[in-house]
Amino acid sequence: MITIAGAGLAGLASALELARAGASVRVYEAGPEIGARSVARYAGGMLAPWCERESAGEEVITLGAGAADWWEAITPVTCRGTLVVAPPRDHAELSRFARRTTGFREVAGTGVDRLEPDLSGRFSRGLFFEREAHLDPRLALQDLVNAATALGVVINPGTAAPDRVDLDCTGIHATLPDLRPVRGEMALLHCPEVTITRTIRLLHPRFPLYLVPRGEGVFMIGATMIESSSTRPVTLRSLSELLGAAFAIHPGFAEASVIETGSGLRPAFPDNLPRLVQRDGTLHLNGLYRHGFLLAPAMAARVARHFIPETSDAHHSECQTA
Amino acid sequence: MRVYGTEITLPLFLGTAQYPSPAILQDAILSSQCEVVTVSLRRETAGGTGARFWDMLRATGARILPNTAGCHSVQEAVTTAQMARELFATDWIKLEVIGHGDTLQPDVFALVEAARILATDGFKVFPYMNDDLIVGEKLLEAGCQVLMPWGAPIGSGQGLRNPDALRAMRAHFPDTPLIVDAGIGRPSDAVLAMELGMDAVLLNTAVARAGDPVGMARAMALAVETGRLGFAADPIDRRDMAVPSTPVLGLAELM
Q1: Of residues A203, A199, A198, the one with CA closest to residue A94
Q2: Contacts for A210 with CB less than 8 Å, ≥ 6 apart
Q3: How far is residue A217's CA from residue A276's CA, in Å, rounded to a whole number?
Q4: Which residue, A195, A260, A278, is CA-closest to A221?
Q5: B 73-132 residues with CB below 8 A of A?
Q6: Closest C-alpha among B128, B208, B66 to residue A205
Q7: CATH class of A2-64+135-175+270-321
Q8: Residues of B in contact with A275 (CB under 8 A)
């Protein structure tokens, strides 16, 4: 029996990978509902390794390129790519983004119009990352629970983990050296007047924004990145920046209803990449930062290889000791 | 450079925002051997909530110069400075009072007022200003002992838009430390600032958003050193006509 603390994204993905490898698994969740305390609830759910490479190490591609396939086996994944645009006066940002990334093709204004007719005439240039995808984080968490329990994983919500577990996936609640919180804020908009079918990233020197369609006229916009452990609700400053940027993508968002706002603390290590850390007899999977849905599958597979070496190709060096 | 009684060897101040990761920021500080880093204090990070990030900065050994980036009024800047003094246990403050959201120009009237309040309260104020001589005089009157004129709008990477104004500042304030703050895009901009006789350069975006921030931090450190040596060595003046570098007189007579 392998015991896991935390039924968030990292814990559930690890539980599923371990169960697939034949282990019996029990997951303890301190919160009353599975995933209710998980920062993943507020994620964009983007599976966008090539875009993320702009500000992250090569690992986001090597570990994240297979994420869409992994998720597709358990939850609906929208594979329509990412469209990156910038207002005319910030075209330098678009050139910079293009220099730092691969896996896209440049599209002119007419190409933008063809991809997203509602954006017709609004952007004269864009970068299209065709292989990228997105999912609905809350649905994906629920589907992850279903997939894991179908394989016999036992999840105990409302139950504090015992003092010692095999795997700690408690995110920012874990006490690990070098782990820090990076606050993020988001909003959900309901705007049936605007039709956008894929993730849009708006580049802006001060407040870059992504907009992810959730279907049924709902859009998620995010997300701020603040070096803070504050858990207070979204601030007016952040919200006005997010909403202003949404308005810059399409003025139709002026009529949107703001149906939810949220904030959460992403756990991150100094290099902003996830790690497996062995500490006092417990393995920690943590530091997924803003790459939870993108990197959880590959990290969960590493967890499984750690506990069940026969599934491994001898990757024992993947874990470090704290 | 000596500023507020503190000797600073490398004339480069680095901002700490926008880096791909804190690990890269740490490496950039270490690779440049920069001695002073500025940190912005948002309300969001007040109450010690940004502590983990600040601990990483302190671990570099660099001196922390808190700033009031993003403040648009005297009251906001003064409050932020007071919070910063408590959090970072320093009376140094880089004072920014922004006048316009798009250009991020300093509101020099509010700047002078805030500088006076803070200097009276015992702060050692580093004012982010434009390159106006009279504003500089008012800031010195208000109690500042250093001036930080911009080279170009913050984050624009335009370099020094008005080198003549900076030269005039140098001549007008021969004994005041002058630090070019904002606008530097490339190492050559930093060289030019130092060749104009500036005492130091403060920059953030040029390093943080470079493809290789660690490499760029090192390049900037070499650039400020190069420019300083060049200025100290008294460069020659430009001429319109060539002057042969080999002597014209006494050429060997050819048979």
Answers
A1: A203
A2: A44, A46, A199, A200, A201, A202, A221, A222, A223
A3: 39
A4: A260
A5: none
A6: B208
A7: alpha beta
A8: none
For A195-251, write each residue's pLDDT tens digit: 999 999 999 877 789 999 999 999 999 988 888 888 889 989 899 999 998 998 999
Q: How many CA atoms lie within 13 A of B150 on its CB side?
A: 24
**What H or E segment, with its residue span, contains residue A188?**
strand A180-190
Using only the alpha carbons of chain A, give its radius of gyration: 20
What is the residue-wise DSSP string for B135-202?
HHHHHHHHT-S-BEE-SSSTT-----S-HHHHHHHHHH-TTS-BEEES---SHHHHHHHHHTT-SEEE
Helix (H) or strand (E) holding A47: strand A46-47
**A176, A47 in Cβ contact below 8 A?**
no
Spatial distance between the Cα atoms of A155 and A203, rounded to a whole number of angstroms? 41
Q: Hey, which residues does A135 pair with through a beta bridge?
A: A77
Can you say how many angstroms the Cα of residue A120 is from the centroid of all Cα atoms in its chain? 29
Q: d(Cα A251, Cα B40) in Å, to the nearest integer?
A: 32
Distance from the Cα of B84 to chain A's closest Cα (Å) equals 15
Nearest CA in chain A to B104: A206
Burial (CB count <10 Å: 0-12, 13-18, 19+), residue B238: exposed
Q: Is the pTM of this model over 0.90?
A: no
Residue of B nearest to A178 (CA): B52
Answer yes or no: do A235 and B45 touch at CB < 8 A: no
pLDDT of residue A314: 44
Size of interface A-B (CB pairs under 8 A): 51
Question: Who's near A240: CB < 8 A, 6+ residues apart?
Answer: none
Answer yes or no: B124 catalytic: no
The number of CA neighbours under 13 Å toward the Cβ of A21 is 23
B245 touches chain A (CB under 8 A): no
User: Which residues from chain B sit within 8 angstroms of residue A179, using beta carbons?
Assistant: 52
State residue A319's pLDDT score.
Answer: 53
Residue of B94, B124, B138, B218 marked active site:
B94
Domain residue ranges of chain A, discontinuous segments joined by +: 2-64+135-175+270-321, 82-130+180-268
Tokens of B103: 């250009």
Distance CA A18, CA A50 (A): 28
- CATH fourth-level superfamily of A82-130+180-268: D-Amino Acid Oxidase, subunit A, domain 2 (3.30.9.10)
CB B163 within 8 A of CB B188: no
Cα–Cα distance between A169 and A292 in angstroms, integer?
12
The predicted-structure confidence for B32-89, as pLDDT tens digits, reads as follows: 999 999 998 875 566 667 777 888 888 888 999 999 988 999 999 999 999 889 888 8
Measured CA to CA, the distance from residue B50 to residue B41 in angstroms comes to 9
Residue B216 confidence (pLDDT) above 70: yes
Give yes or no for a contact between B224 and B34, defined as CB atoms under 8 angstroms apart. Answer: no
Tokens of A305: 């290889």
Contact list, A269 vs chain B (CB under 8 Å): 23
